[in-house]
Design a protein that fits this description.
Layout (H helix, E strand, L loop, with lengths): L1 E3 L9 H11 L5 E9 L4 E9 L8 E5 L2 E5 L11 H18 L3 E5 L9 H4 L5 E8 L2 H10 L4 E4 L5 H4 L6 E5 L4 H8 L10 E5 L2 E2 L3 H11 L20 E2 L1
């Protein structure tokens, strides 16, 4: 599927624009006008302006590093921008399995449609179990399709440890604006009898990284910290990093 933003002055021609794109790109099933991200779950308002089969469905499949999964931008947030980070997560999981000498248990309380988990699930012998949750019911519907055979439910991440305590060797925390504030609620998801890893993402002012590290050490003060590393991976603005 192809998403594009159409200037207001070209709105009368959106149908013709959509048909032209279909004619030029044989692999495109539908063309959607992107009218922006909206709401708590950061979903996109889309208008299907042309499709090969007459369908107005915005659900499709994407391929990322050899893995395929279902997405629907109109019901659940998905961005290809972190594809490399998701590949790095796979390597972290592989290294942790080698260290522990057994398949690992993974938990992602903010899984979305599961783009960070699908590569792990598809890696033979890597995961013993995957626990996946999201607050958006639309995302969970697709999550269940993308992770058959694994636990995937609509849950508030801050309450997940009541249901799934100590379920994770590897904990993924991708809630960029609130990950640090949520972290104290997530610690009980980690196993306590072996090495575990938290891999988290946040949008931060680069000038505050030292302060943030101290805050993280305070949150983790009751845990044995082997290594704590803050790495700026993507710049959102001259002062912010992801």
């Amino acid at each position: 599927d192809h998403l594009l933003k159409i200037p207001e002055k070209l709105n009368p021609y959106r149908g013709a624009i959509g048909q032209a794109i279909l004619e030029q790109h044989s692999n495109v099933r539908a063309v959607c006008a992107d009218e922006g991200v909206q709401g708590e779950f950061r979903i996109r308002k889309l208008d299907v302006i042309a499709s090969r089969d007459g369908s107005v469905s915005t659900q499709t499949r994407v391929r990322e590093h050899g893995n395929q999964f279902h997405v629907n931008p109109q019901t659940a947030y998905y961005s290809p921008r972190l594809a490399t980070e998701r590949l790095n997560t796979l390597q972290v999981a592989i290294d942790l399995k080698a260290y522990l000498g057994r398949p690992i248990d993974v938990c992602d309380p903010y899984a979305g449609v599961g783009p960070g988990l699908v590569p792990l699930a598809n890696s033979t012998g890597l995961c013993n179990s995957i626990t996946a949750a999201d607050l958006n019911p639309g995302a969970v519907e697709l999550l269940k399709q993308n992770l058959p055979g694994h636990w995937a439910e609509c849950r508030d991440a801050r309450e997940l440890s009541n249901e799934k305590p100590e379920c994770a060797d590897l904990l993924l925390v991708n809630l960029p604006h609130d990950s640090i504030e949520h972290l104290p609620h997530l610690i009980p998801l980690l196993k306590t009898n072996s090495k575990s890893i938290i891999r988290a993402w946040a949008i931060l002012d680069q000038s505050t990284l030292g302060e943030i590290e101290l805050k993280l050490r305070e949150i983790l003060s009751k845990e044995e910290i082997i290594s704590l590393k803050l790495t700026a991976t993507k710049s959102y603005s001259p002062s912010d990093a992801y």
